[in-house]
Write a structure and sequence with these properties.
heterodimer; A: 115 residues; mainly beta; seven-stranded mixed β-sheet; 11 strands; B: 111 residues; six-stranded mixed β-sheet; five-stranded antiparallel β-sheet; 0% helix; globular
Chain lengths: 115, 111
């Protein structure tokens, strides 16, 4: 199956700093990628849809100025958590659909801990 | 009301048992229904997806969709300890490719 790589897998940062998470489709081009957030023992909550070459579409309640998304190429989307606070600590996961196929391939996730 | 409802469990069964995992949904715009398996601290992996009502079988796994009652199920036959994971159902809207997930059911298969 297709591979989506997410980096880093784990990051610890100080409160007030910014953290960038990368999501790459390794063997296919993805015009659309999705970013999710998952709290412990809870489901994945869609944060935003990342569109190559255009602005991301954010879900209701997600602060676009806090969670900056850039989709500069067909194989890379980045999520930057700006001015991170402890409540931003969570598991962030990206996904990509190949050729607008219905099957979404997920990255391995990034565990962010803000101290 | 959540768009996709799923009992969080945990569900504990002995090895070899038949497991039934269920979800209900409220959004009639869903075109596809997916089942994902997620091991602890990993990203979800797709198990199966279905488009229309009816059954779809793949090895020990059977996915069932009943659009009239907005009910989806995943059956696991001859369950193994390696099946222990969280199982997430999701609905997908064809136009946007957005996945809306249920809360996930934690399954534990005891040796």
């Amino acid at each position: 199956g297709a591979v989506v790589s997410q980096h880093p897998s784990r990051v610890i940062c100080k409160s007030g700093t910014s953290v960038k998470i990368e999501c790459r489709s390794l063997d296919f081009q993805a015009t659309t990628m999705f970013w999710y957030r998952q709290f412990p023992k809870q489901s994945l909550m869609l944060m935003a849809t990342s569109n190559e070459g255009s602005k991301a579409t954010y879900e209701q309640g997600v602060e676009k100025d806090k969670f900056l998304i850039n989709h500069a190429s067909l194989t890379l989307s980045t999520l930057t958590v700006t001015s991170a606070h402890p409540e931003d600590s969570s598991f962030y996961i990206c996904s990509a659909n190949r050729d607008m196929n219905t099957e979404a391939f997920f990255g391995q996730g990034t565990r962010l801990t803000v101290v | 009301q959540k768009e996709v409802e799923q009992d969080p469990g945990p569900l504990s069964v002995p090895e070899g048992a038949i497991v039934s995992l269920n979800c209900t949904y409220s959004n009639s715009a869903f075109q596809y229904f997916m089942w994902y398996r997620q091991y602890s601290r990993k990203g979800p992996e797709l198990l199966m997806y279905t488009y229309s009502s009816g059954n779809k079988e793949d090895g020990r796994f059977t996915a069932q969709v009943d659009k009239s009652s907005k009910y989806i199920s995943l059956f696991i036959r001859d369950s193994q300890p390696s099946d222990s994971a969280t199982y997430l159902c999701a609905g997908l809207m064809d136009s946007s490719y957005k996945l809306i997930f249920g809360s996930g059911t934690r399954l534990l298969v005891r040796p």
